[in-house]
Structure formats: C-alpha cells, structure tokens
Amino acid sequence: MALLELIKQRKSVRRFLDRPVEREKIMMCLEAARAAPSACNSQPWRFIIVDDPELKKRLCEKAFHGIYSINTFCKTAPVIVVIISEKGKFLARIGGMFRGTKYYLIDIGIAGEHFILQAEELGLGTCWIGWFKESVVKKVLDIPKEKKIDVLIALGYYDKKKVKTGHDREPLEKIASFNSYRA
Ligand SMILES: Cc1cc2nc3c(=O)[nH]c(=O)nc-3n(C[C@H](O)[C@H](O)[C@H](O)COP(=O)(O)O)c2cc1C
After folding, report:
1. Which end of the chain is more exposed for a tag (fewer CB within 10 A), N or C?
2. Residues 137, 132: Cα–Cα separation, whole Å
3. pLDDT (tens digit, 9 = 90+) per residue, 115-124?
4. What is the pTM for the complete model shown?
5. Is the CB of 73 under 6 A from ligand 1?
6. Which residues sit opposite 12 in a β-bridge?
C-alpha cells in the first residue's frame, strides 16, 4: 500500500478483538520504531511490551482508574506498549535547553508513529495513550521511579468495519503555505 494511503487509513482504535498479537509482528513494529531518527541520534527510548494477559489486566485496572477511567477501553487491547522517555545524549539535552525545545519528546513521537504505521500495515490497530496514572505503570512493571513515561500505545487486532473512516483535520490551506507565514 502506498504510504499516504496507509497514513490516511490509520485511525485511533478503541475497541479491540480478543485475539493475541503475534510476537513477530510486534518485533516488526519495534524494528520500525528503532529506525526512527532522533536529535543527535540520541534514541531516547525504551519499549516495554506488555502482552502477558494477567499482567496487562493488572496494569490496565490500575493505570486507567479514577480520573483516568476514560481510557478503560485499553483493557480490551491485547497489548500495551509502554514507551519510556530516556534522557538522551548530553548534546541533545544541552541543545534542547538552549533552544527551549524538548527534543526527546519529538524523538519519542516519531518512533511511536513509526511503530503505529508499521502496525497499521500489518492489519493491527493502535491508539496513543497520554492520559494514564504513570506512578502505577512504574510500580506494576518495576520501572525505576526516576524514569519518565510520557505515552503508551494500545495495540491489537480490530474490526475494520467498526472504525469510522475519514479524518477530522484542518484544511491544507489553513495549515501550510509556501514561502511565507499566512495567518
Ligand atoms: C500524544 C497523544 C496522546 C493521546 N492520548 C489519548 C488518550 O489518552 N486516549 C485516547 O483515547 N486517545 C488519545 N490520543 C488519540 C487522539 O485522540 C487521536 O489521535 C485524535 O483524536 C485524532 O484521531 P485519529 O487518531 O483517529 O486520527 C492521543 C493521541 C496522541 C498523539
């Protein structure tokens, strides 16, 4: 499938099929993420794949509780991908401080989207998850307290017929211009 077609086909999936995801497919998604560019080639990421059903259940029960319960749909996802934002290279951090830019977040975003697009190509659905109880994710997965987890990805097979097509996006004329800024 052409890349633009694949990009347009991807939609956030919030209802998953009760079907495990093959490790080989997850490895392909990880390989796509690994190939992502990053500031100073810092590669400031670690991925923890939670596909053990019991562990994933415990994680979801705790991470999407109370004010985070809007994301309880994640419990239907057979896999939760935890992306740990690592510190990155010294140069990227100093440069980022100087510029006032969190390069590591850009890096994480690119790597995560590589993962997601590869998943889409393999027929898997995903949803970025930014709203979750970080402290319990660390606790359940034995991640050191000082680490930062900015996002998760819910992953699994889904029923394509049940996902709305089309994207609600600003028109191109509004978001892009040639040669000068247009308000
Ligand atoms: C950084 C980030 C965090 C997000 N967090 C959540 C979330 O916590 N829960 C959720 O249901 N969707 C979440 N989303 C998905 C967005 O709501 C979704 O991408 C957006 O509405 C566009 O819809 P689409 O992905 O179907 O094109 C997140 C997306 C991004 C990029």
Report:
1. C
2. 8
3. 999 999 999 9
4. 0.97
5. no
6. 126
